[in-house]
Amino acid sequence: MALGISFKPFCAGGWSPLDTDHYQWLQVDLGLRKQVVAIATQGRYSSSDWTTKYRLLYSDTQKNWRPYLQDGNIMTFEGNVNSEGVVRYELQHPILARYIRLIPLEWSKEGRIGVRLELYGCSYWADVISFDGSSIISYRFRSKKLKIVKDVISLKFRTTAGDGVLLHGEGQQGDYISLELRRARLQLSINLGSNQYGSIQGHTSVTSGSLLDDDHWHSVVIERYRRNVNFTLDHHTQQFRTNGEFDHLDLDYEISFGGLPISAKPNSGGRENFVGCMEGITYNGDNITNLVRRKKVDTSSFRNLTFSCAESNSFPVFFNSTSFLRLPGQSDSDTLSVSFSFRTWNPNGMLMFTVLADGWVEVSLTEGKVTVYMNVTQKKNTRIDISSGSGLNDGQWHSVHLNALENYAMLTVDGDEASTVRTAIPIQIQTGGAYYFGGYFLHTNTRSPQRSFQGCMQMIHIDDHLADLRAVEQGLIGTFENVSLDMCAIVDRCVPNHCEHGGHCSQTWDTFSCNCSGTGYTGATCHTSMYQQSCEEYKNQGKSSGNYWIDPDGSGSVAPFRVSCDMEEEKVWTTLKNNLSPQTSVSRADQEGKAVLQITYNLLSVTGSAEHCEQYVAYACRMSRLLHTPDGVPLTWWLGRANEKHSYWGGSGPGIQKCSCGIEHNCTDPKYYCNCDADLRTWREDAGLLVYKDHLPVRQVVVGDTARPGSEAKLTVGPLRCQGDRNYWNAASFTSPASYLHFLSFRGETSIDISFYFKTSSTHGVFLENIGTNNFLHIELKGATVVSFSFDVGGELVELSVRSPVPLNNDQWHRVEAEKNIKEAVLQLNGQYRDVRTTPQGHTKMEFYGQLFVGASSGQRGFLGCMRALKINGVTFDLEEKAKLTPGVNPGCQGHCNSYGIHCRNGGKCIEQYNGYTCDCSLTAYDGPFCTDDVGGYFETGTLVRYDFLPEAGPIAMQEVKSLSGVEVPSEANLTREELVFSFSTSSTPSILVYISSRTQDYLAVVLRHNGTLQIRYCLGGLTEPYTIDVDHRNMANGQPHSVNITRNLREIRLQLDHYPVSTYTLPEASDTQFNLVKSIFLGKVFETGQIDPILIERYNTPGFVGCLSRVQFNNVAPLKAALRSSLTAPISTHGILVPSNCGASPLTISPMASASDPWHLEAAGVVFPFNDDKTTGDGVDRNSAIIGGIISMVILTVLCIMVFLIRHMFRHKGSYHTNEAKGAESADCADAAIIVSDPAFTETIDESKKEWFI
Q1: What cystine pairs are annotated (predicted)?
Q2: Using omega within 30 degrees of 0 as the cis cutoff, is the peptide bond preceding 697 cis?
Q3: Does 749 lie in the same domain as 715?
Q4: Beta strands in 808-927 (DSSP E)
Q5: Based on the domain organization, do 133 and 113 belong to the same domain?
Q6: Is position 1247 within any domain?
Q7: 675 with 755, same domain?
Q8: Which of 805, 795, 750, 842 is nearest to 523 (CA)?
Q9: Is pTM beyond 0.85 here?
């Protein structure tokens, strides 16, 4: 309803003050306290007078005015732009007051200030009770004791005291509830019960608000249901759960308001009673203030019970950065006495300044301390500095008293006489009679303009007399500029704390800042996580296996935690360890004979998004049964993720009370389904994998059979291992510019963050948009290089844009991250290009109630391409599931290789997958997820590997493909280009490293001569002798790894050894350029029929290569890898002992050196290369140590060779196999196994990847 105001919209006239300046205001008296919910303004009728911006103040008493705040900031209302239009505002929070004051800030440039005003609201009435510090309301219960599971308590209070108990209740069993002011903050303490042994502590304490001693009304509501509590102060609600395990609040006799009752326990004392006013006190439906008026409760402690609130005598003054207040004092006095109280957040500022007859005195706040500067210029300049206090910029009221008389000065802060600072004054002072507070902006010869004070002052005394600030307001004494009288508009910007995730908040008068150190988050409000969401994301950044911090929900409530990432396989494994050591002995059974083992993890939120999870459990037993009992109740069980009880064991599944041996029918005793259930005196074990991920991880194991004599058990619960990240690859493809996905909107809080990946070939398109009641949010691709982020808050449009130096429509993945918080808005592209804008003040919460559109909406041009991993405020949106139901949008996305194919190394081919990509290493000499793992073997004497190019498959095998260096091999069997790459290490000479034969007499051979130097022999026909390349002066048989790369293109041969520069050689003109009919590749030794170069056989083929060969590749053929990987089908044969090893894989990474210092140079006979830096000395190496080490190495090598030979001889008849069949339910040999294998969650678990190896 409309309240009775004289100047209404749509009526003639209006208010227009005589003077148009910043000191005008319009005050409305509502007669009684009313609840105002809206305001409407209009300019003065038929004129050029209107108000474009204004503020609202309100009060109950025409004193101590309070500005209207919105979202923690002094609200500036946008007014009118003409004289006839009506602008109405619905207040975010109602105003409860009798007096409303409108302060014009800006007005019509064509005219003057003009306003017609209407206030909307309703009547308000409540019983008010005044407390004087000794008054207590004791509300006695109808029964002596109350056992309550639900509480609702509400009240409003107003005070100038920073400390005092508002309510208190307690019980004989230790339960209590207490609400009190401490340093002008409100603290709720509650205890639902603690046990006598102290193992259960129920005390819970929560603090809210600040600056509550401002003599304004504050509303409190406490709602409790069992352990869940909502604590609301002035519309800000904190939700928490009480500590302990009890749900009831047990109170005895009474609950008191205004202080502690006489019956309170002695340890509850020492706390001050409340001084001020309360109204609207209710306790579980009972109106306490109404009962007091009706004399239904005990008020005997009140000296004078009044139902009104006394006015405060304080008259605060509010200073901004350009304010000062000038007050008169005595002139020509030899005594200076000034005192006042102040409160501020700024560490620096001028508090008071006065000019003496000869000099000046300044009282300032310097780094949180009160400092007095006295400069006396009589006869000679004398400067005196004294200071006191610390941390006085904490927003609390602090008093300052300065006395200067005769020959000394005293400074007292906060009335602490014991810490009063005294100093001597060498001469007599003489006052000037004028005192400036808050700033001094008059330019004189004695003092330059000083830094100003931002804050509030009150209780100003000059010459021991209280200054009459109301007379100042009326213009009777003193002067002021830009000062707000009778109000203190101090705002605590750190309450509520907008620094998220435990960030520390600090503030000045104008703003706040967050220190995010140690939180794992970053940004202006510590909102953005510093870490990736999963191991999968680290892998796709090119990271290798290791320990990483991950944050699956980003800005959500789950803190980052450390995991181990295994990226060696196609799928990434995430491992999360727990606190239980392997083979932990089970003991300490309780009274029921049960032993409880708690399993704790660092943090956990990986199972929900994982594709597969598993956890190994093992129960070793001796006379300790696991599951079986006569009545069927399991002796042992475990609790999983949802704290649900599970009675199946590793290798089994939900609903099947068996162990792995019971599924596979191989238990120790066929009558039981677990080995341990046989109850034998010998040690047995039941072990296996738990793979139903919705139940994982194991949080608790209860063992029930260890109390019998002779019973022993040992428990192992392995780490939780999860594979994949469905959220990271959750994607959708938009195939039409009119297609979109829509989701229920999210409600914006003080911070909003949005992140996603996209790839497109289009230059324009809307990524997403959300349209709210008053606000909207929009992210769009504009042009081929620009991403924009725009939002509208409170009618003000903010737009950010980031330009990429490369086109964004290149069909590669790009990441967009947008964040809006209370301080700033940030748009980031690909983790490096940013745009940052300040967020408009007064609008900290974005509330969206419409749908979230991903893609086109409102007829706009939508996004064309793929989007994945859309996350808003830590929550991943399921694009795939929504796309299944939406026309024009397909689930999943192809084309990951365009962005991530660079991670496939050494010629590996990127293969697209539905939810990612893999690297195909089949045409390389490498293995691993990125084709970076060396494949090599150790050759013993006589060992050789032969790879044959079959005649009928020759043209196909040698078809035109790109070699490792990009050289193309023609489809004919006659080669004009080839590339041979390998690494080796050996100490034996001579030997053949690689020999490539043909069906003609052409060949290529790489050999080590007797002196350890390398020789390359090319025989392509046309020459009487093979063309040889001798790498002299380098002993390659020194036991160190070496790499060789030989590339031929027609007559040009390029050779690179290790890290040394490439050397180029040219075949003679008489030589052919075709390598005709390549037939076989030999490694280690040649065993070939037909005509072979006799020099090779006679000089280098016996006894054969002994050492390591690694990463052998001839064009697109990897013969050594084919020999070591039984899963590869290839025309390969091996003779002798070949042991997998990468000992020849890592060439030394030292820079090229001069021949004088080259240890491989024959002339550098005395040079010793220090391979072990820790052992080197100035005169070389310790020769005795080297000799002893060599002897030990030879002995160990000899023993190993003998063992390998014996084992091979004993098991020569056996082969090797590796089976990885996916067994379906139709092949299960029992019903239990059929249940497990038919469940997708149990794929390949019972018989997963069985391996047998025979040597």
Answers
A1: 866-893
A2: yes
A3: no
A4: 814-820, 824-829, 833-838, 852-855, 865-872, 875-876, 889-891, 909-913, 916-920, 926-927
A5: no
A6: no
A7: no
A8: 750
A9: no
